Target: Helix-turn-helix domain-containing protein
Amino acid sequence: MLHVYEFEVFKGQDGWLLAFPFDFDGGTQGADLAEVSAMAADWLKLEIEFRLMDGRDIPEATFGHEPTHEDGRILLVAVEASLDTVPAVTASEAAELLGVSRARVSQMLKAGLLMGFRKGRDSFITRYSVDARLREKPKAGRPKKAASKPKPKAAAKPTETC
Model:
């Protein structure tokens, strides 16, 4: 589905161009107009995809805004975003990529170690979260307990001398 929103672009104090959407919280930045435009499109696509995966509402777009900053200008950003545009693999494929069981993938989803969504009866895991998990290179087995600090030795008892 095509989503179109207005962003305000203006120069920040550090010289970067900042882009903030009128209908969402958040924003992005870039070194020049081409970069900030690409970053705004990327930001908007990811924001909509994450909202769809979480089952949250997508705000209705409003148009005709005026810049609120002295050097601000309006940037119209259009992106194609839906659950179909999310780079994802099935839960079984994620298990194979990660070298774990399908049940472990379900546990990892519930624990927030992987990100996924359901489409009908099928479960999908985002490639972003699978790739991030692979970069972490977690070790097999349970995490080891933190090493305990050695106990201080008791002070020697003073001896009496006569």
Q: What stands out?
A: The domain at 87-136 is CATH 1.10.10 (Arc Repressor Mutant, subunit A). The longest helix spans residues 33-54. Strands lie at 2-11, 17-21, 28-30, 73-80, 88-90, 116-119, 122-126. Residues 10 and 72 are 4 Å apart (CA to CA).
